[in-house]
């Protein structure tokens, strides 16, 4: 077993980071409400494809659409990403690893006929829902 050296972090930063939600964030909940109001039905926090250990935030199985709501900090948003000065190497590695995993997930899903749709946390729920709605309708069978 390897020992991981704890990061040097100010108590306020540590407290704030520990409270970050990984699921059911405000944008996720707002997006789900908007999609439901538009008449779409979906599954929440599911693995779209067996054997692919990646969980989507919203899944439309019939249309083979998996929606991922990505946090600007955690996934390196091109508009809002920040690179912390404290523990800079750790955070750069963490965020770049997340970005590579996102691309890998998108490819693994595409390889089996699924479409991964990425929604940034800064997007409005209405705009994201309109985009997802259009995609789901265009991919529904029949």
UniProtKB/TrEMBL annotation:
Tell me where the signal peptide lies.
Answer: none
For molecular function, the Gene Ontology terms on record are: endonuclease activity; hydrolase activity
Keyword check for Nuclease: yes
Q: Name one GO biological process term.
A: mismatch repair
Key words, A-Z: DNA damage, DNA repair, Endonuclease, Hydrolase, Nuclease
Q: Which Gene3D superfamilies does this one have?
A: VSR Endonuclease
Please tell me whether the keyword GTP-binding is annotated for this protein. no
The family annotation for this protein states: Belongs to the Vsr family.
Q: What is this protein called?
A: T/G mismatch-specific endonuclease
